[in-house]
Amino acid sequence: MAIEIHKPNVAILISGRGSNMEALIKASKEPDYPAKISIVISDKDDAKGLVIAKRHNIKTIIILKEKYNSRIDYDQALSETLSKENIQYICAAGFMRILSEEFIDKWWNKIINIHPSLLPSYKGLNTHQRVLKDKMKVTGCTVHIVRKELDNGPIIIQFEVPVKSDDTEKILSKRVLKMEHKIYPYALMLLSSKKINLDNDIVKYEDKESLDNFLTSI
Ligand code: GAR
Known about the structure:
Bound molecules: glycinamide ribonucleotide
């Protein structure tokens, strides 16, 4: 008799293309992946990711910002939806909204985000453009637990990506995005299977060797 293992429900928040969202959905289809992607929520009704989510038979909900008077009201509606859907973890994947302190408090240590730089360097927008302007030799991507400051919080995984002298923004962003798609599912796996802990707001790993092996294998 097959044993049904309860997997935590995950919501993915998107605003656009949804390529990280799709990487998470694909990873979660592996039988031994420890989390279930239950819902995709977008703040834009034309987000391309919504089409991809539907193609993967994932429930989608649109919560438009125009319908709410304030960030607090918006985040309250978002929070209510997440609670109703019995969500345990939240992945921001190109969700271009700043979450309120109230929201982050309510979902403390349950929200993770991906950012296309080696945080704490290059927080915010136009990351690759700024990296190229500064003639950096290395950039990368980071998955972190969300804290109250933008693109800030305990780092779960970071991966370095070389910058080449003839890189354009488009070429560099593609090279970084390819690695984002690898590290985000691994980071969610670590969180949802409780293979990480926080010590003074620094991530500690149950099995650092496995993480190191993963990072050298990608
Ligand atoms: C990704 O590169 C992600 O790292 C970035 O937005 C892109 C979304 O692409 N997120 C941030 O800049 C957050 N500060 P996607 O919709 O194809 O995943």
